[in-house]
């Protein structure tokens, strides 16, 4: 009886052990399905990242002890059950990460398995998904292809496309056979100085989207030619005038232009900017003391080589508030002193730099790049621009203007989507030296390479709102010391500029490309 009982207990023990082993194998089957080495291990850590809208980058972990012959990758478009396979490919471990071109606006289900070269069974599938964005076969719109009432659009030749839709205006252009072959079409009937979005379609499926702004329709504007006397043209122009400069070199004419009436100086063609060499002073209109004077530079190449002082100065007291100062689509370079200088009792509504490249400005010592001493400015806005070797001292300085600070006024600063490169700035330099009593700053999506500069060392500077910045070789922007307002949320990645010394700040760091940090012109 005892012998029979012992045998029964032994059988129960064996049975329980078998169940335990079976349970362990079942639990690990997803990743360790080759536990007995009868089949390959499944890939682990599979990631699928979208690059350039319609290309997916696949990667997974390959352990040193695993040595499959290759991996099979299958793609199914909008089909989680893989009933229809869109694409199949073999990938060797040495090829990882691998990039695969797909179609736009599609949810792809992707599965990967390991295939043995030693007679083992294939691994189980590992499945993930990726959603592609709108396909982009449009080429960037060139400035030379943009006119006041028409634009020439270009895309990959011989692509499957049927029409171009343009908004606003509900314009539809049916693509001809010749245009399809060449990958070029001209859209007419546009309105000058208007922002448009063009969508390239194949039937109802988007194959590309571009935006552009049409050129100026001179209309009532004043046309200026290289042989004209620029100073006289500006002096005789009535307030509110738009002076449109033909392409050409005007730099033989120099001097300081008094802007005491609302004026806009702009280039006729953004892709062929007129070359000017002037300084400007901003003041009230002596003939109309109630006028709020505004000043704009648009699509101009402005040089300060051989001049003294800054580009734009408020040097005399203004009893009437001054308006907006705008630098847009410009190249401004080689001024020994400030880009903008406010050194008189005045109130300025705004100073804005947008979509511009500013280089070698404020290279002499003793001044600051954007420098408001006794002038109050309500808003300083720097967007989608590059600042290359600008400032020998402070980048933005807003002092406590006597009689204006502490009176309920607030100075606001925005730095958004800019590339700021000044790698030799010393520790005495500050990015935001803001001492106006009430102030607020936002710094976002911006790439800094500013040497030993800090944000500030002054208690009056309010803590900025930071987001999505990168501080490369700029350690003091993140140091919490000496009243600094540090950006501890910023990354410190090497942007891998193509050639910073020659002014090419095209990014090669994929993480920063994906995060869209810096001036958008360098994110390709």
From TrEMBL:
PROSITE patterns: FN3, PROKAR_LIPOPROTEIN. Residues 42-137 form the Fibronectin type-III domain. Pfam families: DUF4957, DUF5123. This is Fibronectin type-III domain-containing protein. It comes from Flavobacterium anhuiense. The lineage of its organism: Bacteria, Pseudomonadati, Bacteroidota, Flavobacteriia, Flavobacteriales.
